[in-house]
Amino acid sequence: MASEQVEQKEESRQAEAEENDQQxxxxxxxxxxxxxxxxxxxxxxxxxxxxxxxxxxKLITSVETVEDFWxxxxxxxxxxxxxxxxxxxxxxxxxxxxxxxxxxxxxGRWLINLNKQQRHTDLDNFWLETLLCMIGEAFDEQSEDVNxxxxxxxxxxxxxxxWTKDARRGDANVKIGKKLKERLNIPDRxxxxxxxxxxxxSRQGSTAKNRFSV
Length: 214
Description:
The structure is a single chain. By secondary structure, the chain is of the alpha+beta class. The chain has helices at 2-23, 28-32, 53-56, 66-75, 118-121, 123-135, 170-183, 197-202; strands at residues 35-45, 57-65, 87-92, 108-113, 146-152, 159-164, 193-196, 212-213. It contains 8 helices and 8 strands, in the order ααβαβαββααββαβαβ.
């Protein structure tokens, strides 16, 4: 009699365990995907002279996990293969890659100018490392100051820029610039400069003065 009770209890325990197993089945996506701290959106600009600037800017998609980022990055054309006049922009979701956006208009950018040869040697690595810095929040507490990054493909020389939200935050911007320069392995002898968007807008046709350099 005692053994029957033990068997009944064991069967009851197994049935209860099976029922619990069936109830707690995590989504496969939750098991394998790693969420980012922010959602990021990739934009593409194509220089079609028959359209205005805003019409040439297209949102490709947004990503919020590490796996989604790599799926997107491996799917789109490499920056070095884009036609001249095209841009990629990766910004925090909700911020458009334009000066006029309320999140950008008080900000500025760390600007890296590349020569024509660097399109084949450095451009893609620089762009990928910049994206990884952003989505990985590599700037520590200054990551909040980072809005996005832009790569411009141009015949006379490509450009890479990291945009921040407030040009007046000198210490934060300098720390971001130093970390970016370090991650891109830019030699100490080469300096990169930070320009406020308001200075760039008011100095159309000429180079804006650097607010900071590292």
